[in-house]
Amino acid sequence: MTATSRPPRSGEGLALAQEAVRLALDKKASDPVLLDLRELEAVSDYFVIVSAASEVQVKAIADHVEDSLRESKGLKPWHVEGREGRHWMLLDYIDVVVHVFHEKTREYYLLERLWGDAKKIEIADTRPA
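The structure assignment produced for this chain is given below.
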């Protein structure tokens, strides 16, 4: 494996993706989508896509997901993008890529439409009302 190549996938992506969704919802992320990309030629098995109302919230959500997965599972993202701009932060865990979008940026990129052939996995919002 070269310094720029991705490590192999672990096959434990669904549980990690569901945990990332739960953690994002802890910080009031909105419109969560979980895409199963395993049947497509994709760089990852799952995409988690959530929205935030502000740049501050984008960072708070991404930081919470990253910090919580590091503390609870010993996981660090293989790659992180968007820390400077905070319109779209990406946490790449190989099996799972977490996308935290500012609402306007998500509307512009329409990532769910780009990956429209992917199976959507139902997300149960278990937060108290």
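Interim note for the steering committee: The mean pLDDT is 89. Strands lie at 30-36, 46-52, 79-81, 88-92, 96-102, 119-121.
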